[in-house]
Amino acid sequence: MNDLTPPPPALGCRTSPVLKQRGQREVFCGLTGIIWLHRKIQDAFFLVVGSRTCAHLLQSAAGVMIFAEPRFGTAILEEGDLAGLNDAHKELDREVARLLSRRPDIRQLFLVGSCPSEVIKLDLSRAAERLTKEFAPKVRVLEYSGSGIETTFTQGEDACLASMVPVLPETDARELLVVGALPDVVEDQMLGLLDDMGIGPVRVLPARNIDAEMGIGKNTVYALTQPFLSDTHAALERRGAKHIQAPFPLGEEGTTAWLAAVAKEFGVDRALFDRVTEAPRRRARQAVAAAAETLNGKTVFFFPDSQLEIPLARFLARECGMTPLEVGSPYIHDALHGPDLDLLPEGPQISEGQDVDLQLERCRELRPDLTVCGLGLANPLEAEGLSTKWAIELVFTPVHFYEQAGDLAALFARPIRRKSTLNHGESSSDPLFAEARA
């Protein structure tokens, strides 16, 4: 198959100087990844070992009472536990035994630390090994950290998937492993496209249940759908799997480049690739074009939040006509972000990490048409007359692959339309106002 990677701009951003800052951060806690992971992995339970503060965070983030949602909860550490006065391991064993006796449907149990082990006085890795021996083979017990001290917003998913890789069985089969949690409808669309090209067998991590056939070996090739999976990437490489580097499947161009990289690895004929992708590519371009009328010529500033910032900036610059002024990301990993940086036209300041006060100063000075940031910054910036988009929406909304490309562009267009409508003094009964406010 001929190379279908989009032609890069004359000068991309892969070799651009990166502004690295370490200071006060404004990011969500990695525990919030549980909100989408517990829906994706259907036979799993996520038991957060932490304080009442962590329980309140999950309650607020999920919009439900703890244990009212069927597959996550919190084992609350009391003052005596934190002071080392109680045997926390014995107490955890009792809570796990009680949970599993009441919930026989649980096949995978994730112990999620809300703080470093030095804080909670509990070694969860040792606890997971002990509990696995006790409850295997019916239940697999794994652990990872979702601590806001050790992880940023989306790194909770990365830590979760990385914890699964070492326990997957060995295989010599040549298989494609697609890595990253996607909404079921999006995953099904992706699998349909790959199947129509004759690519298979295809495995997905995370699988929807533990019984899905999946192994890792030197003949495994894998493609990432999320740009924040650096630890999972490293774990797969340690198992001997081969990474297919590609731009991430956001927008028509990114999706085509991602599929083309996979198709090239599996020797798919160019005519077959074009036949399979022609119709969805056309629909994606048309859907993006509708929102691009609003976005074209506008400027955008990204605060670091989800690690989606670089592929999103590439999408907005190349498909929507926007001009990124600064593209901040919590971490930049060349093997993951490099292909998107190649395509991102030279010009924006690329920044890694954050000193939030200094970054706010740069944003205020540049006065972008749109600022993508966390919840804590959005309202103050709106009060200063800047249009904002909550970064968290870009994680919780289906945005990957062709059929979601128009929805992705619309997420950025709505705040700009809203501001335009308000500036023109439209009545709240006007249909455009209602759409802009959505």
TrEMBL record:
[4Fe-4S] cluster binds at C29, C54, C115. The gene is bchN. Protochlorophyllide reductase is composed of three subunits; BchL, BchN and BchB. Forms a heterotetramer of two BchB and two BchN subunits. Keywords: 4Fe-4S, ATP-binding, Bacteriochlorophyll biosynthesis, Chlorophyll biosynthesis, Iron, Iron-sulfur, Metal-binding, Nucleotide-binding, Oxidoreductase, Photosynthesis, Plasmid. PANTHER family: LIGHT-INDEPENDENT PROTOCHLOROPHYLLIDE REDUCTASE SUBUNIT N. GO terms for molecular function: 4 iron, 4 sulfur cluster binding; ATP binding; metal ion binding; oxidoreductase activity, acting on iron-sulfur proteins as donors; oxidoreductase activity, acting on the CH-CH group of donors, iron-sulfur protein as acceptor. Binds 1 [4Fe-4S] cluster per heterodimer. The cluster is bound at the heterodimer interface by residues from both subunits. It catalyses: chlorophyllide a + oxidized 2[4Fe-4S]-[ferredoxin] + 2 ADP + 2 phosphate = protochlorophyllide a + reduced 2[4Fe-4S]-[ferredoxin] + 2 ATP + 2 H2O. Belongs to the BchN/ChlN family. The keyword Nucleus does not apply. It is an enzyme of class 1 (oxidoreductase). This is Light-independent protochlorophyllide reductase subunit N. Residues 29-403 form the Nitrogenase/oxidoreductase component domain. One of its GO terms (biological process) is photosynthesis, dark reaction. Its EC number is 1.3.7.7. The keyword Plastid does not apply. Pathway: Porphyrin-containing compound metabolism; bacteriochlorophyll biosynthesis (light-independent). Component of the dark-operative protochlorophyllide reductase (DPOR) that uses Mg-ATP and reduced ferredoxin to reduce ring D of protochlorophyllide (Pchlide) to form chlorophyllide a (Chlide). This reaction is light-independent. The NB-protein (BchN-BchB) is the catalytic component of the complex. Its cofactor is [4Fe-4S] cluster. NCBIfam families: DPOR_bchN (TIGR01279), PRK02842.1 (NF002768). It comes from Sulfitobacter guttiformis.
